[in-house]
């Protein structure tokens, strides 16, 4: 009789030791990895195609660059639209401009700055002193 109690206790302990619930750290979602590799200029790795955001939402813009400069981060309704600055001041790199490192800046899709719901929004990352080396994100959607 004692053997069966010991067996039940051992199997219960094994279940709890293995993390029998979905809240264990191993069940946490992994951080996305972006390809920020660029040989000359800027490459916007995120937002990616067909992402959907809402007016007022704060999003991460992820980009790689070879240009050590300050940056404008702008929203455009489409590739031909005038850019709307999403930051009040220049974004300065916090890491190397080696064409491999991903840089992340948080921006708010702010209606007060002129961001509108659109089916073809993009983020443009623009170096101040080499504006022709700037780059657009993929097209994404902005909902009300």
Structure description:
This protein has 144 residues and is mainly beta. The protein has a single domain, classed as Immunoglobulin-like, CATH 2.60.40. The protein is 11% helix and 34% strand. It has 1 helix and 10 strands, in the order αββββββββββ. The strands form 2 sheets. Strands 2, 4, 5, 6, 8, 9 and 10 form a 7-stranded mixed beta sheet that branches. The radius of gyration is 23 Å and the shape is globular. Residues 3-29 have low confidence and may be disordered. Residues 1-19 form the signal peptide. This is Lipoprotein.
What descriptors fit this protein?
single chain, 144 residues, mainly beta, Immunoglobulin-like
Cα distance spanning the termini: 66 Å
Could you estimate the helical fraction of the residues in percent?
Answer: 10-25%
Categorize the overall geometry. globular
Cα gyration radius (Å): 23 Å
Q: What's the CATH class label?
A: Mainly Beta
Mean pLDDT: 84
Quick description:
The chain has 144 residues and is mainly beta.
List the helices and strands and how they pair.
Layout: H1 2-17, E1 42-46, E2 52-54, E3 58-65, E4 70-76, E5 84-85, E6 91-92, E7 103-108, E8 118-127, E9 135-136, E10 140-143
Parallel strand pairs: 2-10
Antiparallel strand pairs: 1-3, 3-7, 4-5, 4-6, 4-8, 8-9, 8-10
Signal peptide: 1-19
Protein name: Lipoprotein
Organism: Fibrobacter succinogenes (Bacteroides succinogenes)
């Amino acid at each position: 009789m004692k053997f069966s109690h010991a067996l039940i206790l051992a199997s219960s302990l094994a279940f709890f030791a293995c993390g029998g619930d979905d809240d264990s750290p191993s069940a946490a979602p992994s951080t996305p990895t972006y390809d920020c590799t660029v040989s000359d200029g800027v490459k916007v790795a995120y937002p990616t195609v067909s992402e959907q955001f809402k007016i007022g939402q704060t999003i991460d813009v992820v980009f790689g660059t070879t240009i050590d400069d300050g940056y404008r981060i702008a929203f455009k309704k489409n590739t031909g639209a005038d850019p709307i600055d999403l930051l009040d001041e220049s974004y300065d790199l916090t890491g190397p401009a080696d064409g491999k490192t991903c840089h992340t800046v948080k921006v708010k899709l702010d209606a007060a700055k002129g961001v509108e719901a659109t089916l073809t929004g993009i983020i443009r990352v623009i170096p101040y002193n080499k504006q022709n080396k700037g780059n657009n994100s993929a097209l994404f959607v902005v909902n009300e």
